[in-house]
Amino acid sequence: MNKTLLSFSILATLLLSSPLSAHGGTYRGPGDTVPPAGGGAATPATPATPSTPSTPSTPGTPTPATPSTPNTPNTPTPAAQPKTQTTPTTAGAQVGPDLTTWEFWWEFNKEPYLNLKAKVHSGDSSTGEGDILLGLGANAPKNNTFAPTPSQIRGSILPALTDALAKEDQRDIATACMVALAKVGMDPAQVASAFQKRHSTGDQEVSETAAVSLGILQQAEALDDLMNLLADNEAGRKLVGKPGGVPLRNRAFAAFGMGLVANATEDAEVKQKIGNRLWETLSTDTSALKDVRVACAVSLGLMEPADPTALATNLLEFLQDDEKDPLVRAHCPTAIAKLLKNAEPTFPLREKAISDFLALLSTKKTKNEVRQSCVQALGVITHGSESPSAKKVFDTLTKLGDKARNKQEQNFTAISLAYLGASVDDSDPMRQDVTRYLVENVRKAGTGYRPWCGMALGVMSFLVQERGGQVNPVAFRAVEESFNKEKSPSPKACYAVSLGLMKNEAAKEGIRASLDKVRDDGYRGYACVALGLMGAREHKDYVTKIVKESTRRPDLLRQASIALGLMKDRSVVNTLLEIMVPPDGGKPRLAVLSATATALGFIGDTRSVNPLIATLQNDKLTDLGRAFAAVALGMVADKESLPWNSKIGQDLNYRAAVDTLVDQAGGSGIMDIL
After folding, report:
1. Would you call 661 exposed, middle or buried from its count of C-beta atoms within 10 A (0-12, 13-18, 19+)?
2. Model confidence over 496-506: pLDDT tens digits?
3. DSSP of 246-281, one letter per residue?
4. What is the pTM of this model?
5. Is 61 helix (H, G, I), strand (E, B) or coil?
6. Going from the N-terminus, what domains does the chain have, and what CATH number goes with each?
7. Cβ pair 600, 608 in contact under 8 A
8. Are 181 and 216 in contact (CB under 8 A)?
């Protein structure tokens, strides 16, 4: 499962030869680089960061072991692979891949914008001509939503995964099945029981996966085990079979799992119990590794309590304590913003949080990671028309957008401004001010900030249209002009995705024509996604051709397949299954296997179920191939419409990474699990 942090120039070699876990494989950014983690006692240099290219940072998928496979993330491939360059920061020059590019943000945050499964499961998809799929008989009942039925999940998928887990000790298959069963979420007591013996296995990755799978299961029945693991008490040590103490990674994954349980439950008592334990651990833990504390801070942001006052107040005090580790403090602003974002815009504590974030940004003493997070949090928490601080927030963000010394801090301002502009009505002056600023900067800012402003216009337009509002046509024109003028693949891809988010119909033909001119795989993948976001079904045959020609280009294959899913073209399922299990009996490369399996899972079409089960049960195939079939089954039958960890990744400061959050070496962080 080891993945090496490589420069863009050897990405191709990485995809061909690096091991990757089947439950892993998420794409977080260009070059498949992963953000440096700060698991040690020392605080990592603030800049370092995310990487996660192939899927937010660390390609890989379920957290625990899970098949180790080539390195092909599960996320669309980054747009153009930018050249290696030096990124200036206040902490000095950082040599290596530029981790400040837009691809990283997109890969961590894209799920709600794609919402792929919901689109595929709606009843108006195009099936193409070959509608009878391998493995489904002619008399199979029709399913108008294209999602697997509860009876199909309970009668076929659940037994196949349960049987495979019971029979297999092989790491990749076992971890993939655990995560898949947790995603399905049926028969939680029985499933949790099936995980029991895996906690105490001698394989650390399998043991970790058992812990995080309890969280993905999202059932209160699993809460006692998770709390015991986090507490490192006698019961927790007995569960993992380690009298000397629960490993720190298991404790961190248990904390993430508790956040997932709290997020899913409506039981106020359960929420309070979890919140109290997470806060107690965050405020008292003295482990050399920061992972446990980071996991607690991030998970507190998932709580959604009826009254967020106590938790938000505690986190604000922790944030203000300069004695606390800045890497851990960096995860407090977004957690606070998530806790308070549904409170009334004038809620006093909400205003206090905004004031505290602004104060931290007003002094140069504040560490870069904390500043970056404060910028992000201001966009999440500020309501542009009702917050008394809205004008000050706008002025601060635009000032930092113009002059921030830290590039990541500067770039995050664009997204926060997009949120601010989308929070108000169409006629509100704040919308006009935000639009004017972003349009001006997409045309005239420096080369690094321009694409972020273009992406921000797309994000704002998407959110406004989702709420039934209208977008100023000047935003469409500015991004389309930038797309037409841009020659470099990465920023051009950014403008293409932005146009897709805007559903700018006028740009469809230009994006389609660019696919004939630009040969960069990263660009072409994102251009396909842009067409998918626009629902440009008139171009589905062309994109299908790209899929069929990309069997040696796994990231492009995945991106183009996702585009077809967005276009509601279900015939791509046939193509993917033929690539995954070739009719001639050939064995696809591991990177291709990962790409096809995860694309099938993202699309979530019921017709892929029987072929995937047959693959999982075929012991003549490689362990990794079978494991990826389990991964895909879990994704197809997922109880949630969005990936389980997308709620963690949303507005996450991925630059403040620890191994259990985003793992640069093993692809086994919480954001690396498929």
Report:
1. buried
2. 999 999 999 89
3. --HHHHHHHHHHHHHHHHH---HHHHHHHHHHHHHH
4. 0.85
5. strand
6. 108-672 (1.25.10.10)
7. yes
8. no
